[in-house]
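Catalogue entry: protein

Sequence with per-residue tokens
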Amino acid sequence: MLFPGDLEKAGWRTLLRQPAFRAELSGTDVLVASHHGWENGFCEDIFAYFTPSCVVISDKAKMHATQETVPDYRAVVRAQGVHVRTTMKDRHVLTTRRDGWIQFTVDDDNFYIDTEFQG
């Protein structure tokens, strides 16, 4: 899992100059969207180095057009996505707006996802 905090595009691009950072990205399976999933945190360049199974966006209700990045993230995740046990659905982008709390349970090399709402 990668938790980039409030990293914005310029920060991503600076980190991508470092070979060690690019190498670390290759092992990323779950991305927590930077800057709460807002447009200024989305950097398509990073996906040249990994393809996540899903993206998690922690954000409040939509109030600005800059929050409408779910389709951008959906376009860069693996086709199969991840299975959510609560809903029994396969998903690509999970958001606290739609799903409420999102819980990952890690067991050996696997993880399981449960959500507060039925999505």
